[in-house]
Structure formats: structure tokens, C-alpha cells
Amino acid sequence: MYYQRTLKQALGCSGIGLHSGKKVTLRLLPAPEDTGIVFRRVDQDGFEIPAHITYLQKVDFATTLGAGGVQIKTVEHLLGAFYGMGIDNALVEINASEIPIMDGSAAPFIYLIREAGAVNQVRARRCYRVSRPMEVQEADRWIRIVPSEDLRVSYTIDFRHPLFAPFADPRFS
């Protein structure tokens, strides 16, 4: 059985928002079981936005969560770090509308999570099980998920753009 996990201690950082260019202060704090990841806008009277699909507002150029006119932008690297480090429950206090970009990857957030440490909690971790194939398509883009006993991820990317060889050289087309 796998148990839910949270941070052992609070830890923070500051940086610049990629799209806003504003200085942002961020704190990662432990949270009780079944909390999930919750963003708290300290500059908006502590307004909270859970990291849940029902709060998803945009995914173009950055992932934006929002509710009640309040948003948290560019959450994907931090959420990826939480997932990769097995953190189920945490409170993210932030004083702006955007997570700091740091170096443009999840690595600085992974470092923070490692420094804070992680602890197992009492309750079991909830997992989703894919019971039937599912597919979503939009224009020429699509994603498919199928049941499996093992995690396997396969993908193909095909951008007709000069930065992606071999399309940059007409001899290869």
C-alpha cells in the first residue's frame, strides 16, 4: 500500500514570473491528508485554488488555474515536481499571479522539495485506474490512453518548422 505524502517542513524561494516579469515569493508548506496541492494567493486575502482539473482555465503557453477571478499561472513545473517527488498534499503560498520561472524547468522545485523533505501520512494514496481506452482529439492533435499493468509512455512529435531537423534542409523532405 502506498501512503499519501507531504512536506516535512516549510521552505520558500523567490524569482521572476516569466510572463509578468514581476518578482514573486513562493512558500511550500506541509498540508494534511486529502488536501491535495492547494495554491493560496496571499496578495488576494489568502484566496485558495486547488490544483484540480475543475479549476483549469488555460493551457496555451502555460497552465493556468483559477476561480472567482483569481488566477495562478505557469503551474506546470511546480506541479510536475510535486508529482515526480511523490508529494500528494502541500500548500503553496504565493504573492503574485504567476509561479516564478526559476531556470525554466522543474529542477529548482525538486531541489526545494528535497530540502524540505517528505513524510508519509496515515491515509492511503488514491490512484486512478484506466479501465477502458480513451482518446481526445483537437484538429490534428490527439492523445490516447489505454489500460495497462505497466506505465508506458510513447509519443511522436512532428513539427514542420525550420528548427526541427530534418525539415530544416529541403534535401531531406
Notes on the protein architecture:
About 10% of the residues lie in helices and about 35% in strands. The radius of gyration is 19 Å and the shape is globular. It starts with a strand and ends in a 28-residue tail after the last strand. The chain has helices spanning about 75-85, 105-115; strands spanning about 5, 10-15, 25-30, 35-40, 45-50, 55-60, 65, 70-75, 90-95, 120-125, 135-140, 140-145. The chain has about 170 residues and is mainly beta. Helix 1 (about 75-85) packs across helix 2 (about 105-115). The strands form 4 sheets. Strands 2-3-9-4-5 form a 5-stranded mixed beta sheet, with helices on one face. Strands 6-7-8 form a 3-stranded antiparallel beta sheet, with no helix packed on it. Strands 1-10 form a two-stranded antiparallel ribbon. It contains 2 helices and 12 strands. The model has no long low-confidence stretch (mean pLDDT about 90).
